[in-house]
Amino acid sequence: MKKMAGFLAVVVLTFFLAASGVAGDTIKVGIVDTYTGPVTTYTYDVRDGFKMAADRINAKGGVLGKKIEFVIRDDTFKSDVGLAMAKELILKENVDILMGTINSATALAISDLCRKEKVPFLVTFSKSGKITGEKGHRYVFNMNENTDMIGRATATAFAKKRYVKYWIAGDDYEYGHAIADAIWSHLKALNPKVQLVGQSWWKMRETDFNPYITQILAAKPDFVIVATGGGSMVNFQKAAQATGFNKRVPFYQHTGIELSTLMPQGQNAPEGVFGTANYLFYYPDTKVNKSFADDFQKLYGRHPKSGALYGYMTAQFIAMAYGKAGKVDKEKFIDALEGMTLDSPIGKLEVRACDHQIVLPMFYGVTKKSTKYEFLVGSDLVSIAGKDYMPTCEEIRKVRAK
Length: 402
Hints:
alpha/beta, Rossmann fold, 2 domains, 14 helices
């Protein structure tokens, strides 16, 4: 009877531990992001790319004998909601890692929380340069490009153009101002002759751009830098097409050439829009990129967008870092991820040890109709290597010291 009672006690304890997650048979990742509204054209791909990689890793036995598990929370693009969800995932769900978000303000708030709670936070779409710049710290990593990177790469391309009189327009929030400031400050440094003739700022998710377009055209700038985030990217392009704005003055949007922006519009997107992106499923035309794009399309029935790459490589970096660490330990995970490199569909990628910022190439081009696809693509593409535009580690240290 004593042996039977002991056996039953072990069974009950084992069941309790497994049910409560204490058994430690998984690596638990909490994802906070926006899964309602227009920005899902970006965020769904992050989620699906992550799942694709995690499923492959788990099918091969997982990491250290543990499977990668993830739980999702929809912050509805609200910073207070996102922060509350991050707290719940850390304190109640006991996640090992947090990842997300597309909202830069939310990312900065969660980053501060993770610094206090000492939980690794892998940012997968927010682009504020502050994340790994002045507000960077040990517990935050940026797994996509940031506004300073965008500004430097874009300025490098614009400095060679003939444009002199510029107008800046965009979403009146963290990302909009950050990307506009980054582009303009670097462009001014590279070409002191450029002039800023005016600015327009609208609320997030604006749908009526006609008053702003009228104002811009009246000023007759040579070029317009349009600093729109996920919620306004497509809406502004639709307005530009409807008003003929793109035929009267050239303009630029980061991700203006990216599939997330162009696919929802089909053949109705405006041609001649300048843009930058970190991932295009058709460029570079390599076996590795084609294989990734084909696998994603077979799995989800659509071409992968930039978010798919961010999610996919984030899962791979997580697995590699834990494998290198040799145990599920937050501090050892951070130490392992610092300076780690990974072969990806767009080449070898590195997570810099000095600022935890991933080093990515930037693709620059202009929208054009394609006979091959039912949507516009980026043409006249130029690749700008990360090493040619990234801020130096010394620059990062000076920014953080201020």
